[in-house]
Amino acid sequence: MSSKYGYIEDNLIKLKNRVAKICSSCSRDPKEIYIVAVSKTFPADAVASAVDYNQLDFGENRVQELLKKEPEFQSRIIHWHLIGHLQTNKVKYIVPFVFLIHSVDSLKLAQKIQQEALKAGKIIKCLIQVNTSGEDQKSGCDPKYTLMLAKEISQFENIKLKGLMTVGKMINNYKVQTERDIVRSNFKQLKELFEEIKSHNIPRVDMKYLSMGMTSDYDIAIEEGANMLRIGSAIFGKRTDF
Prior knowledge:
Helix content is 39%, strand content 17%. The chain has 9 helices and 8 strands.
């Protein structure tokens, strides 16, 4: 473990304490909350330090970066999450080891995951990414088509749909209540979709994970029912290139 990244332990402790405090304020159990440490742009040494402090789940945005890091941790217990946009031609590279794909936003992508998972003899766990903010630059299924996509994905025997993911609207000042309310409405919509899909009891659909909330807005996400947070800078610090 590199002493350069010793600060990660303090950050993880602070984060877990804050999560517990937020959970207490809205009568939730902090044990329900999965923290995915978003390690994009940070080297394997930083990930190793977090692993040494009992962090299990790590999120990467880019397949290429994930493929560089993954071989260094094959002897460790670690769950890799692909949280960024996934191109169909990259699916085959992550199927052998990925724990959860957060960013399935189309039937075409799901079909490719099914194809590669079948070849590999794997069952791949996925979330549907929903564009609740309506921003054109963001990936994600249109909310009104989410239930239909869930039903379509349920037909694939090598995919296990495990829930939903969204990215709240990027806002300028999280101290401004009206801006926080916009993010809250994005998260509230995802929770409603989550409960709607769960109520249909679709075969091979296990609505377990509600992935929403990042460093800037995870307090709102917890209040609105998130049980999986994608936290980067609050754990690893300011992003850097390597």
